[in-house]
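Contributing new records

If you add data, match the layout below exactly. Sequence lines come first and carry their own label; structure lines follow with theirs. Keep one chain per record. Anything else will be rejected by the validation script.
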Amino acid sequence: MKHLSVGIGCKLNTSADHIEAAVRGALGAHAFDEIACIATLDIKAREPGLIEFCTRHAVSLQVFSRAEIEAVSDLPTPSDAARRHLGIEGVCEPCALLATPGGRLIVRKTAWQGVTVAIATSLDAPASESESTSRDTL
C-alpha cells in the first residue's frame, strides 16, 4: 500500500544515486513500494537527480512554494541552512507533511551527504518500528 510521502531537500546537482541512498537509509523497515510521492521545494522541480530518482521508482514529484512551506508550523527539526539560504524553516519535513494532509511525521529529518529526508504518513496508516526519532546518518 502506497501511504508514505517522502520530503527531500538536496544540494544543487545531487545525483539520483545519492538521493536513493539517503531515502533508503531513512525508510528503515519500510519498502520503496510504500512511497506514494516525493515532495520538495518548487525551486527543485527541475533538479536532474530528483527527476531521475522519481522516474526510476515510478513515483510522482509534488512541489510546494515557500509560502506553503512557511505555513507549516512547529517543525521538530528546523534547519539553519534552509533558514539562511531560502528564508524558510525547513524543506524535507514541511514538504512531507504538506504532501500528506492531516498526516504525521514517522521519520524526522535525516541527513546524508547533502540530502535531507523526512517521511510522513496519514494518521490511520500503520506505525513502524522506526517511527519518530531523527536518525542522523552523516
